[in-house]
Amino acid sequence: MFTRAVSRLSRKRPPSEINDSDGKPGSSQQTLKGTSRWTTSLENLLEDPEGVKRFREFLKKEFSEENVLFWLACEEFKKTQDKKQMQEKAKEIYMTFLSSKASCQVNVEGQSRLNETILEVPHPLMFQKLQDQIFNLMKYDSYSRFLKSDIFLKHKRAEEQEENSSEAQSVAKRASRIYNT
């Protein structure tokens, strides 16, 4: 069940526009795509399914993929409406990431660990403090290394080559239209 939720999250479409405080689309954010957008913030990286995929690939090599998996599971958990389903997901998150016997245990401060009894009365923000800790760990540690990693740099180069190739094709098409008319 958890892996399906992560898969659904990884395929989730990012917001089509980011609005500035005046409610109009942000011009700088609107034109940035892919790796260029990922470099602006960890938030932007995590909104992009391809960004999540590449970041997970990097974290797996660093033996810390559980951090992004926990963060994604918490994001999915917050959207849960049904109380019974929320209780099941809360227990699943606890057993997978937070329990002392967890298979993918995340490294959170001891006093922040949840007591298993809280799982009986779950609420959408019950993991928020822990999720924030993990987000900050990723933001100030893993994210900056990711931006310097081979995984990121290779993807960025491939993206640039694809962009240059499509620009060259566009120029060639425009030129052929001009000379063939």
Automatic annotation (TrEMBL):
- InterPro entries in the record, alphabetically? RGS, RGS10/12/14-like, RGS10_RGS, RGS_sf, RGS_subdom1/3, RGS_subdomain_2
List the GO cellular component terms: cytoplasm; nucleus; plasma membrane
Segments of skewed composition (Polar residues): 26-36
Q: Which residues form the RGS domain?
A: 41-154
- Keywords from the named record: GTPase activation
Name the domain of life this protein comes from.
Eukaryota
Q: What's the protein called, per UniProt? A: RGS domain-containing protein
For this chain, one GO molecular function annotation is: G-protein alpha-subunit binding
The UniProt entry's GO biological process terms, in alphabetical order, are: regulation of G protein-coupled receptor signaling pathway
Check the record and name the CDD domains matching this protein: RGS_RGS10
Annotated region (Disordered) at 1-36, 158-181
Keyword set includes Cell wall biogenesis/degradation = no
- Name the Pfam families on file: RGS
